[in-house]
UniProtKB/TrEMBL annotation, chain A:
Highest taxon listed in the record's lineage: Bacteria
Annotated Pfam families: Response_reg
Keywords: DNA-binding, Phosphoprotein, Transcription, Transcription regulation, Two-component regulatory system
4-aspartylphosphate modified-residue sites: 53
Any GO molecular function: DNA binding
Keyword field contains Transport: no
Entry-linked PANTHER family: RESPONSE REGULATORY DOMAIN-CONTAINING PROTEIN, STRESS RESPONSE REGULATOR PROTEIN 1
Residue ranges constituting the Response regulatory domain according to the UniProt record: 4-120
Name by which UniProt lists this protein: Response regulator receiver domain-containing protein
TrEMBL record, chain B:
Transmembrane segments: 29-47, 59-80
Taxonomic lineage: Bacteria, Pseudomonadati, Pseudomonadota, Alphaproteobacteria, Rhodobacterales
Organism from which the protein derives: Salipiger aestuarii
Keyword annotations of the record: Membrane, Transmembrane, Transmembrane helix
Name of the featured protein: Uncharacterized protein
From TrEMBL, chain C:
This protein's GO CC annotations: membrane
Record's bilayer topology term: Multi-pass membrane protein
Catalytic reaction equation(s): ATP + protein L-histidine = ADP + protein N-phospho-L-histidine
Protein name: histidine kinase
Length: 126, 99, 893
């Protein structure tokens, strides 16, 4: 069975790029671009790995992550966070919020793919 | 209260200017005058009153009024000097009142 | 009797003459032509009230009875004036700075403005002066009788001459002595009349003397021979009395209420004292010069048993020189009247200020705040006091039987008023003198004088029983009135002077040493003793603004409405309060009190101000005011206060600056994050797709083309962002070069609308314009202006959420052109309006495309063009207003 990756991101071109890379790896990619409804979507349809942008319309990635960790259903979900702000403070904030992996935009496609694979390997079986 | 003319505001001068010095001596004289007068007018206490050697009234009149008008003259001179100094620049205020 | 009628006529004419002079002088003073009234000569002549009828008639009598002793009474005052630098100079300065109204005021003011002392001294003065006034009445009566009855032997009164004289004097004094309320102001009329009288009496005595010496005695040498040959030929004096009288007369000269009145109160210029220092001794010398020759002549020419007190009159009369006698009579009349007039004024001031007014204020119940003028009360009190004082003198004259020698009555009076001396001299030279000391000394001295001299002077058995005089009260021998402590054989006067002044001074010193003065006493003490060091205010009042009105009401009642208002207005101007009422600063209260003191005396003025202002705070701080330290302290605390206010302001500014910095720091962080984000986002796409293009195999041509165009678009987006950032940076730093040129607003708008429409983003918007209004000629940077318009139109296209977006562009021409851009969307929330012009602020989501720099750039551009762009709320939709000056002005930058 194919692993499922959820991508929450608002920039259409980046969605396209990540979607292309992951689907060629044989992963199913669900995308969502609205911050406010992201958590509902996740609870309803839990992926194996979540790729999360920080700056989203409506709700920041950190808030989504915190809420997700507080929810028993998604508390152990591996999350890769992507940010375009790239300050060290952002990394700390993300780690405190309980991120599994953290990458700064722009990223190398290969590295991104490595991170996703690693997270998938560590992901609990459902 | 030393208001003696020239620049005593800062440090006091040991020697006053000639003008201030004169002024002070005139004031000294004005102070001494009544005591001279008292001394002169108490002299009659020593005069002999009895007998042939007694002082005659005419002499007494001449002495008393003589000293009197002499003292008046002295007071007038001092008053005139004080007034003249009060008018001069550097003298004290009106009437030479500022000692 | 014809002679008597002539005399009455002469007297009346002379009185009228005096009235005229007094009236003219008052008028001249009122017209401000009083300079000659205030000459040193007038001042010196006014001092001559020292020479009363006692001098004019009594000196000759005294010479006959006791030889040269009469001279001592003039030597004392001569010495006091020659030594003016010691005492009088200080007394006059104190009197002027403290606005003293009388001797009682001086003592009361010095010892803490004590009303008790004021009343005490007033009583002493009244009691001490009463015999003196009686003496004047007696002398005038005697002189009348001499003419009227022709009885030159006894001169007993038969009619009511004394009463008429007393009434006349009271009338004159009331008319000219109570003109102005301010006792501190000169009584010009009275002073002038007195000066004239001084000339008359000197002239009269000199004329009689010259007549006697050259007319009867054969010149100077002849006169001296005759003197030596007469009863007075040998020098004989009582040494004790000689010394005692010199001291007593000097003391009395300082303390006599009438002398204080002319010497200090009526003093107009301190320099006059300098002239008087020699001129008055000269006057006294001339007055006493011919006394002995007249006495000798009288003894020779007149029958034995003639009253020697009247020789000045009877010698010319006996020689048939009626004219000379009348002149002499006028001289005596002048001496008597001038003394009574001034004494009555001085005493009435004391009585009304220290006795009547305090009582009135107490019994008026409502206190000093009653509305209405109390000046009439003060004036009435003065007038009644004058009448009362003169009538008291008359009463004494009747009671004492009018038989005593003139000089002995004078001596009683002198010894009485001299009791003030220890308190006076102690007050102006010794800071340690206290109220308790002054009270003790005055009480002892006054009591001793009353018991040993004053009461016995009424005659044996009147007040003091004969048995007391002989054996002492209740048989206690050492308390015999004229032999205190068993010391007998002293001259009664000398006995009194020695004992009363010793007890007085001793009591004053001991009680002063033993007591501790109140703060106000210490303040006043310093003020008096160091009057030449600082001539400014002792008591510090502290008042509240609300009291100014009460003070005003009170001041109006004492000073009169006009003067009081002038005083208050002047002070208000000085304080620059803006209103007509000044703030009751300590300085002002002090000045007001002094002004009032000039009218009602220091103690009363103090009490009145105190009643209104409330408790006066004389504290350690006030004491320090004497050393000017309070001023420094107040200045220092004011400075501290100013500094603390300054500090508070600085702190507030710092806090503001700090929060601004914090905000700026936060903004800077946010800005950097934003830039980072805005730059990284397109770069992420570019990198990702370029890697895909590089690494991925088997891409379809469509995919290839699509990804390449994404890279292209994102590269353009990146470039545009960098352009915007650079643009903004240039604008913000003011480095922009404006390309000014003229052009029509309509053309600029056309270009902007076209450019905005060319952008493929966003919905189509119907744009409504008003071509007529747009025909405005502009001279500005048209490209930059166009950039602003493009931004605004593009915004509408991006953000207007209406189903059929519409944009109204309204133009209001003028020197500054106003262009409004109003769409039919939902508009912005208040919070959004606040931040819309900030960098990277975006109202809706990112899909709209821009980096959020557009409006920030617009604002910068408009600022550069001397105009502005702002959000226009309340227009239904999103609305921006652009204001631009039609002609770009350099100053706008």
């Amino acid at each position: 069975m194919t692993k499922r990756v959820m991508l929450i991101e608002d920039e259409p071109n980046i969605i396209e790029a990540i979607g292309f890379i992951l689907s060629r790896e044989g992963l199913t990619v669900d995308t969502h671009s609205d911050g406010t409804t992201a958590n509902d979507k996740l609870r309803a349809n839990r992926p194996d790995v979540l790729i999360l942008d920080v700056m989203l319309p409506g709700k920041s990635g950190y808030d989504i992550l915190r809420e997700l960790r507080d929810d028993a259903a998604t508390a152990d979900l591996p999350v890769l966070m992507l940010t375009a702000r790239g300050q060290s403070r952002d990394r700390e904030t993300a780690e405190r919020a309980g991120v599994s992996a953290f990458m700064t935009k722009p990223f190398s496609n290969a590295e991104m793919l490595d991170q996703v694979r690693r997270l998938l390997a560590s992901a609990p079986r459902v | 209260m030393a208001q003696d003319g020239a620049g005593l505001r800062g440090k006091p001068l040991v020697f006053l200017e000639r003008q201030s010095y004169r002024r002070r001596r005139v004031i000294d004289a004005a102070r001494v005058l009544p005591f001279i007068g008292l001394l002169l007018w108490l002299l009659p206490l020593l005069w002999r009153e009895e007998g042939a050697a007694a002082v005659r009234s005419s002499s007494a009149i001449v002495f008393l009024f003589g000293t009197w008008f002499a003292l008046v003259g002295a007071a007038a001179v001092l008053s005139w000097k004080l007034a003249a100094q009060a008018r001069e620049p550097g003298g004290a205020g009106p009437g030479g009142m500022g000692e | 009797m014809t002679m008597l009628n002539t005399l009455v006529a002469v007297c009346s004419l002379y009185a009228l003459f005096l009235f005229a002079i007094a009236f003219a002088a008052d008028r001249a003073a009122m017209r401000g032509q009083a300079r000659w009234l205030r000459s040193p000569l007038v001042y010196t002549l006014s001092l001559s009230i020292y020479c009363s009828a006692w001098t004019f008639y009594g000196a000759v009598g005294s010479a006959v009875r006791t030889g040269f002793e009469y001279l001592a009474i003039y030597l004392g005052p001569s010495l006091v004036l020659m030594g003016w630098w010691w005492i009088l100079r200080k007394l006059v300065r104190i009197g002027r700075t403290q606005r003293l109204t009388s001797v009682a005021d001086l003592i009361s003011s010095r010892y803490g403005k004590s009303n008790l002392l004021a009343v005490g001294v007033t009583i002493l003065a009244v009691v001490g002066t009463t015999p003196y006034i009686a003496l004047q009445l007696q002398s005038v009566t005697l002189s009348f009788e001499v003419f009227g009855v022709g009885d030159i032997v006894s001169g007993q009164e038969s009619g009511h001459t004394a009463l008429w004289v007393a009434a006349g004097l009271a009338l004159f004094t009331v008319i000219f002595g109570t003109r102005n309320l301010d006792a501190n102001e000169r009584h010009n009329g009275v002073v002038m009349a007195i000066a004239v009288e001084a000339v008359v009496k000197l002239a009269a005595l000199l004329t009689v003397g010259i007549f006697v010496v050259w007319g009867l005695l054969g010149g100077v040498s002849g006169a001296l021979e005759r003197i030596d040959a007469s009863e007075l030929g040998q020098w004989r004096i009582n040494g004790g009395r000689w010394t005692g009288m010199i001291v007593l007369s000097g003391a009395a000269f300082l303390c006599l209420p009438r002398i204080f009145q002319v010497l200090v109160v009526e003093n107009d210029n301190e320099t006059h004292l300098r002239t008087a220092s020699w001129a008055f001794p000269l006057y006294l010398g001339l007055m006493s010069l011919f006394v002995v020759p007249i006495a000798v002549t009288g003894l020779e020419l007149l029958p034995a048993g003639s009253n020697p007190d009247l020789f000045v009159l009877t010698v010319p009369l006996s020689q048939g020189r009626d004219g000379l006698a009348v002149l002499s009579f006028l001289g005596g009349f002048s001496s008597a009247t001038s003394m009574v007039i001034v004494a009555a004024i001085a005493l009435s001031t004391m009585v009304s200020n220290h006795v009547v007014m305090p009582l009135f204020l107490r019994f008026a119940k409502r206190g000093a705040k009653v509305s209405g003028d109390v000046r009439h009360v003060v004036l009435l009190a003065r007038r009644l006091s004058i009448v009362g004082v003169v009538m008291l003198g008359y009463l004494y004259y009747r009671l004492s039987g009018g038989g005593a020698a003139l000089s002995s009555i004078g001596e009683v009076s002198f010894a009485g008023v001299a009791q003030v001396l220890p308190a006076m001299l102690g007050g102006i030279f010794w800071r340690g003198g206290s109220r308790v000391g002054a009270l003790a000394g005055l009480t002892l001295g006054f009591g001793c004088w009353g018991y040993t001299l004053f009461l016995p002077s009424f005659g044996a058995g009147v007040f003091v029983p004969d048995s007391w005089m002989v054996a002492g009260p209740f048989g206690i021998a050492w308390l015999r009135p004229q032999a205190l402590f068993g010391i007998e054989g002293m001259d009664p006067l000398l006995h009194t002077v020695v004992w009363s002044l010793t007890l007085n001074a001793g009591g004053f010193v001991l009680a002063s040493l033993a007591s501790f003065p109140r703060p106000l006493e210490r303040l006043q003490g310093a003020q008096f003793v160091n009057v030449f060091d600082h001539s400014t205010g002792p008591p510090r009042w502290s008042g509240k603004v609300a009291q100014t009105e009460d003070l005003m009401i009170m001041a109006q009642r004492i000073l009169g409405a006009r003067d009081a208002q002038a005083l208050f207005e002047h002070e208000a101007r000085r304080q620059a309060t803006g209103g007509t009422l000044p703030a009751p600063t300590p300085d002002f209260l002090e000045r007001l009190e002094r002004e009032l003191a000039g009218s009602v005396g220091a103690a009363t003025a103090h009490a009145m101000v105190g009643q209104i202002v409330g408790g006066m705070s004389v504290s350690v701080e006030d004491l320090m005011a004497v050393a000017d330290e309070t001023a420094q302290l107040m200045e220092y605390s004011a400075r501290l206060e100013a500094q603390s206010q300054e500090l508070a302001r600085t702190a507030a500014k710092l806090r503001e600056a700090n929060s601004k910095l914090t905000r700026l720091s936060v903004q800077k962080d946010a800005f950097l994050s934003q830039i980072s984000h805005e730059l990284r986002t397109p770069m992420t796409s570019i990198r990702a797709f370029s890697e895909i293009l590089r690494d991925a195999d088997g891409l379809t041509p469509q995919e290839h083309g699509k990804y390449a165009s994404i890279i292209h678009d994102e590269a353009i987006r990146l470039t545009r962002l960098l352009d915007d950032l650079l643009d903004l940076s240039v604008l913000e730093n003011g480095q922009v070069n404006l390309n000014l040129r003229p052009g029509l607003l309509s053309d600029v708008l056309d270009r902007a609308v076209a450019a905005a429409a060319a952008d493929e983003h966003g919905a189509r918007v119907r744009i409504w314009r008003d071509p007529r209004a747009e025909e405005v000629m502009l001279n500005t940077d048209l490209d930059r202006l166009s950039q602003v318009f493009i931004n605004l139109v593009a915004n509408t296209r991006k953000y207007c959420d209406a189903a059929r977006p519409r944009l109204d562009i309204r133009v209001r021409p003028g020197a500054t052109v106003v262009i409004d851009f109003i769409d039919n969307g939902a508009g912005l929330s208040a919070e959004a309006q606040d931040v819309i012009f900030e960098k990277f602020s975006r109202v809706s989501d990112q899909k709209a495309g821009g980096a959020g720099l557009g409006l920030a750039i617009c604002r910068q551009i408009m600022t550069r063009l001397g105009g502005e762009v702002s959000y226009l709320s309340g227009q239904g939709g999103t609305a921006f207003r652009v204001v631009v000056p039609a002609r770009y002005a350099v100053a706008a930058q």
